[in-house]
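Protocol step 4 of 5: obtain the predicted structure for the target chain.
Materials: sequence only (see below). No template structures provided, no constraints applied. The aim of this step is simply to have a reference model before the mutagenesis design in step 5. Sequence pasted as it appears in the construct record:
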Amino acid sequence: MTNAVRERDRSPTLRPLPVAEAVTQAFRHLERGENEVALQLLEKAVKQAPHVPVIRYLLGAAQSRQKLHALAVSNLEKAVRAEEANLDYLVALGEAMMAERPRDAIVKLTCAVDRGTKLPQAYSQLASLLIDSNKPDEALRICDLGLSLCGDDPAILGNRGQALSDLARYPEAVEYLVKADALRPADITTTINLAGVLLKMGRLRESRSLLERACALDPASAPAHYNLGVALLMAGNYREGFREYEHRWGIQQLVGKRRKFPKPLWDGSELAGRRVLLHAEQGIGDTIQFVRYAEFVRKRAGRVILLAPAPVARLLSWLPDCEIAALDRPLPDFEVHCPLLSLPCLAGTDRDTIPPPAQFTIPVEMNRKWSAKLGEKKGIRVGLVWAGSSVHRNDRNRSFACSLFTPLSDTPNVEWFSLQVGPPAVQLATSGLHDKVRDLAPDLTDYAETAAAISQFDLVITADTSVAHLAASLSTPTWMLVPFAPDWRWLLDRDDSPWYPGMRLFRQPVVGDWDSVMQSVAAALRNLTNPGAPAIHSAAPQTDLARWSNAANLDPAWNQRARLAADFIPAGAHVLDLGCGRMALEGFLPPGCRYTPCDVVRRDERTLLCNFNEQPIPQAAGVTHVTALGVLEYIHDWRGFLRQLRALCLPVVFSYCPTDFTAHLDRKALGWINHLSLQELSDGFAEAGFHLQSSSRPDSNQALLRITPAETKLPVSRRVLVMSYNNVGNFGDRLGFHTINSLLPAGAEVHHGHFQPWNVPPGDFDMLVLGIGNSIFHPILTDQLTELVRRIPRSVGIFGTQYRDRIDTRRMSDLIDRLTVWFARYEEDLLLYGKGRQNAIHLGDWLIGAFPMTQWKRDETLHVGREVWNNLPLDRTIQEIQQFRTVVSERLHPLLCALTSAERVAYQEQREDASGKDSGRFRSLLIDVFGRTFPESGIFEVQRDAVAAYRARSMRVMSGMPELFNQLLGITR
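Step 4 output (structure tokens):
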């Protein structure tokens, strides 16, 4: 290499360099990450020495780093041809091909691996490609080979963990990802993957904590934010989850699926007649689920065009007031566009505002066609689907073999039909079911035909596929079989879906256990089809022992119920758990509790055996409290059961699914023996000698109740209505709920209502408490609320305001005028709405009284996300926050708690409404406490004297509240 290239040195002149020296310097620049400088040197060097392999290799490496993939591949191919034995060149070529030619990359890297390369990136990159190609078994083999040759390389360890996760071997996956994370703590990719596995295991809190850490380490990381969005959605936190989900376009799986149009993206603003192009972005199931938001767009005075994939184009044409555009034809004119899965974010969706499914109006001629095709009905018609698209990343876990339906096939009075299409449809012919199940696949040419067929059915039983969305949207009863690690939309620990009211979920109790799921489906189907099932109020004292003995029927949804039931149990109690099932309650009991399980079958060596339909409730020494969760529905003589409980003279925590909440369910199919309304249940408690002490709602179907022997009931003198959000997932609202209950008169009968959805218990009330320290703002400041205050003779407001630029000041003034007393949350509230009013008092944020002034113990920083830990009791949540020297919070009341203990704090504003504006709560709080505000995200020192003075002032005002409430209610002490 006697030729020379030129490089500018520190002087303004150019100096000649021999090619060899230029290559050496280029290599050093590459090592330091100075890719552009290296590239310039190598481009000159290759002109001087075009046949030197090492120059082609280094040039290709530099071009690959600069994402000049085609050029990189060209140069690396020349290097490989020149030195075929050099495995470093071959590995570099495979890596350069990954972005645009992944199949060729697999071939090259496999060749390098088979020839025994010692470069760890060959094994990690090949494993990554195999994982992306849905070949985790092969990826696992490559990782094992790489670890044996290269040692504990963090990239190989991480990919082995990811492959194990795809194979649903979650505990092993966690082990390897933790190792990789420890070796490479600054690489958030491993952190994100570890969080994903924990999410699949149902460990939401740990997953979210890791993802929040990843977002803090790299705020620009789209995968971190996207996965945080998935975790939030899995927890049912839709408003914040969909906001984070908007980062999806930055993840590898979707980066190529984002459609680009010459018109702007819709931001949710008013449309004033403009035409909006709504377009699908992911699977057909997503399209069917989220096309319901077309109505949201129309309500903004928009005109809707749906860009429809061919398989659903005809189906979507059955929606009202939508123009359909085909993918293979020129687009009609439009002004703005929006992908379907961005609409929930723009709509500000939460659990209470999910729109109903899209309404597909099947043409009459299609109904006639399919009625004739299916012929005379000979029994309950049931459609079956067992597999989704094989290219779906989670298909190996969500799909199953057709033969798994065999236990159902002998159910009498059922006509079976296969709705399965695509390659899995051929399984029917060899499954042993072909003579029992009629195959409709040849006629299901698109989703319109499938919809018309489903409209003739009584039930659809399906894997997690697009047909599940379609059947549920058509209001056909739909039973969906859900893998242990579900998609985010199916949440955790529940057998229903907020997205589809008529859907019932059958979940795997453990990974891969479809047999237990099918046994549960078979039992439910027998109850549905058996015309000789017991009458509604049958007194036959028989228990369905098969149902209770089958572990598959111990629904994981009971965990949430058990978690909430534990809130009714005091520390130190001895609990007799009737119908203990999985014994989920034991894990949630407060400190010092003893636990005795009781069931019809033995759950562990401690279990007291009792068939409640045939035997008296057993006595257990030292028991102080009884629980009966999910039991009463299966008791024939339920009144006698209540009398037995009353004879124990103990408090009882009950759950029951009253008919008021379960009109959408087939109670008989679920095996429920009795069918009581809330009023009938309440009357039964009174008749047995119980007093209903408190209640809550674990989910949309159940009531959770604590009843006590009647002699403990205090004489009721007045009825009080407390109106709040009833947001049990919010730390501040949970605190407020307990605070107001502690201040109200002991003899008052307290009823809780909430704003959204509007829910006011029936009857007259002597006093209204409006708010429990939270805020009144635009969506809930209605004439309906003002009318409620007008109707109740005495009213106390305990609230502040937020999003003040959107508040209707006329309504707010009218509301405050009608209150007997208004305890304003902040000085700003008082200045804006309390001027000249004699009924307005500055309370402050009264929840500071729940936090003792104390000192931090851990010299660490705590990041509190948009939801605080809801699986901990309130006292332990407070203790956890008060441990840390520095606290950064996105929620108001964790920050308030931190002010009583931390040395430094910071906040991030809550922007929860569709406008994206600041709520103003942090500003108001800081001015109240410190007389000034601080910049968002900036850490500032806590002035303890100011916090202590603020706490004392607020508690002085609170100290007069009990006497005020007694005076307003006319109660003398």
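Step 4 remarks: The two ends are 104 Å apart (CA to CA). Residues 1-16, 531-541, 712-716 have pLDDT under 50 and may be disordered.
Proceed to step 5.
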